[in-house]
Write a sequence for this structure.
């Protein structure tokens, strides 16, 4: 137990700070109610009423976060004051008890300092009763030290926990950091951002439409590689735009500058893309399984042919003809017929390369040329090994993947076109739209209104 105060601080001073923060939070709550009244009133009239109400709602959301910060910190300060007060009382009691024990020890050994030769000599002279008193005083001193150290250690742990909690509260979504700066940047440029996102959405739709037209037109033509390559590039650009648009809508919704309905729509679009990708992988797995099954079935077919009675009889007949041949020229002619027969009986081998799909087959595979090629390969192998259950099952698996890919492609396209048809526009204000759908896309819960932003 040192001379310095192990638990410095003024509990009443901390409580004063806690009271001030609680009062500030309460005052902010009163201002929130005033802003709510502005947003809910129907009495205001004029050109800028809607903008005023919208601004009041956004500011209310920001102030709610700020009020929450003051209230939570106030609660933690109250905890800190109580822990500090308890620790100071405990260390004071332990220190008093230790001083009493030290005084008792010194009085029993004639005032000599503990541990010195004089104290040891004095202790030898004590009668059993006094020695018992000395031992009890030493136990009391030791327990006081343990009590003191435990109080200091517990206070240190409690103070650290409270300090960490306060840091977490302060380091929240309303701090003036990089995200807050980005949030305000979004809000200041919101109209321009909405226009850019809408234009980007129309570009993605146009690219998907052109890619679809390419596939449909190619059904009635002999397509070259350039057609399919152009289609693939358009699909990739459209996908990149969709991902960028989703990220922007998430940022807008998270800062209270957009609706989570927009995010939900974007996620549906990305999920259909992802579903198409996974389906394409499923087609490839089916094709790989068909390849393995076809190889196995071909080997078994070759073995069955060689062991069949007809094949054995035919080969034996060739051998008899060669043995009875009058000359080498005749034997060579018979050998050629035997080799030709042997070759005609061999089962067809597995294709070494993927076949080239037609535009129609690409369309059925959801616009994925590689998936279409794998699907066609699996179907060809199943036809080649007609009757082999493993090869047929693998081809059916690939076909199911192709159906899912087409469904994802068609579903995503339909959802996008419907959205373009019934959603309100930030560019063409008079565009016909379905109001409930627009409300869904603008949906934002109360907690999201200004949730991450900070008034400057």
């Amino acid at each position: 137990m040192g001379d310095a105060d192990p638990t410095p601080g003024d509990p009443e001073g901390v409580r004063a700070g806690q009271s001030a923060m609680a009062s500030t939070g309460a005052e902010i709550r009163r201002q929130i109610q005033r802003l709510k009244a502005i947003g809910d009133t129907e009495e205001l009239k004029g050109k800028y009423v809607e903008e005023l109400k919208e601004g009041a709602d956004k500011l209310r959301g920001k102030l709610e976060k700020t009020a929450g910060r003051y209230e939570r910190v106030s609660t933690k300060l109250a905890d800190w004051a109580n822990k500090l007060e308890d620790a100071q009382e405990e260390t004071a009691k332990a220190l008093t008890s230790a001083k009493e024990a030290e005084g008792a020890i010194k009085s029993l050994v004639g005032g000599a300092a503990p541990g010195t030769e004089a104290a040891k000599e004095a202790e030898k002279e004590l009668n059993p009763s006094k020695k018992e008193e000395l031992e009890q005083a030493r136990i009391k001193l030791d327990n006081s030290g343990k009590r003191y150290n435990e109080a200091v250690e517990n206070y240190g742990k409690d103070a650290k926990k409270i300090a960490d909690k306060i840091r977490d509260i302060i380091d929240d979504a309303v701090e003036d950091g990089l995200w807050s700066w980005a949030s305000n940047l979004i809000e200041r440029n919101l109209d321009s951002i909405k226009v850019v996102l809408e234009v980007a959405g129309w570009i993605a739709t146009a690219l998907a439409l052109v890619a679809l037209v390419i596939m449909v037109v190619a059904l009635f033509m002999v397509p070259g590689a350039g057609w399919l390559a152009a289609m693939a590039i358009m699909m990739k650009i459209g996908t990149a735009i969709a991902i960028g648009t989703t990220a922007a809508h998430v940022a807008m919704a998270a800062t209270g500058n957009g609706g989570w309905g927009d995010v939900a729509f974007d996620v549906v679009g990305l999920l259909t893309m992802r579903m198409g990708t996974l389906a394409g992988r499923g087609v490839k797995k089916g094709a790989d399984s068909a390849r393995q099954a076809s190889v196995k079935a071909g080997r078994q077919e070759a073995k069955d042919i060689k062991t069949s009675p007809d094949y054995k009889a035919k080969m034996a007949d060739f051998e008899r003809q060669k043995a009875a041949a009058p000359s080498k020229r005749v034997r060579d002619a018979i050998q050629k017929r035997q080799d030709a027969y042997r070759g005609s009986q061999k089962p067809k081998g597995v294709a070494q390369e993927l076949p080239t799909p037609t535009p129609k087959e690409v369309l059925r595979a959801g616009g994925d040329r590689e998936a279409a090629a794998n699907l066609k390969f699996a179907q060809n192998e199943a036809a080649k090994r007609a009757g082999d259950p493993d090869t047929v099952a693998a081809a059916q698996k690939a076909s199911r993947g192709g159906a899912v890919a087409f469904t994802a492609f068609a579903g995503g396209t339909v959802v996008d076109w419907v959205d373009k048809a019934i959603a309100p526009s930030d560019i063409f204000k008079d565009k016909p739209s379905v109001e409930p759908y627009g409300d869904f896309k603008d949906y934002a819960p109360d907690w999201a209104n200004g949730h991450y932003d900070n008034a400057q």
